[in-house]
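[[Local backbone shapes]]
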Amino acid sequence: MGTLPLWVGFLVGVAAVIAIDLRVSSGQDVTPRKAAGWTGIWVTLSLCFAGFLYFLGGAKAAVPFLTAYVIEYALSVDNLFVFILVFGFFKIPNRSQHRLLYWGILGAFIMRGVLIGLGTTLVAKAAWLLYVFGAFLLYTAGKLLFGGNEEEEVDPEKSPVLKWGRRLLPVADKDDGLAFTTRVNGKFMFTPLFLVLLVVESTDLLFALDSIPAVLGISQDPFIVFSSNACAILGLRSLFFLVSALMDKFRYLKIGLGVILAFVGLKLIAETYFSEYAHAHEGVVILVSLGFIALTLTASVVASMLIKPKVQPGDAQPTPVTKVGA
């Protein structure tokens, strides 16, 4: 459905809101309250855009966008845990985190645009690739459900991109404020903050290999896939600071994401095999998908809030209070 004016208008709108975000929040520490406010703004803008798509193309345009947006946004929450680990490892202060995420988002737009273009083009020429995407989503779901704690397995120091940057780039011994480049004795050099940016960009590229097949499982329309990814990425920076403040409350989100990816993978394989039936009942399939995904996410969040973690042997126990005179 992506006509040239729609593409141009969307990209101009994205550039405008990014510029506003940078101007308003540049150089400021991001508190959980500010992060929650900006997260609400980005979600509202995305819902307004879904309403605009409904005006243009009805439910067949708006519902796939919403479904893909919810999947991408939910996957982003899990991915942000790795960003928290990376920033903690390199001891990145709050203001520098904002700058890294801002430029990381710009890089993500470019990388995901290329990957989405390749993915939709390949699927249009070889529909059997949808089986491959479906199988990959089932594999990813299995890792989330049965593969243990992925975040604990991540070691930023072993990142190939970090090793490559240290070996090939002239890197200064210390940062120069929020700058990615500096001069030492008149010599141009990159700052250590730039190396962290490379780690963030490479990490987002790996995440895209999971999320883009999931979105292609909802729609193969390039505009729907890209716009849903873009809207989710726009809210990534504020969502990061909100998640970092509430990260202990999302214990069951990984299980919910695993169930969602398994559902999308099976749905993609079934729709490809029964393509005529799926096309004839496209509206019902999309609505069922959105309902299942929303219900699963809600259940995982509610479970995280209501079910308290079990106390393991060796955990610190509260010291009992002894009454005076006992």
The two ends are 77 Å apart (CA to CA). Residues 318-326 have pLDDT under 50 and may be disordered.
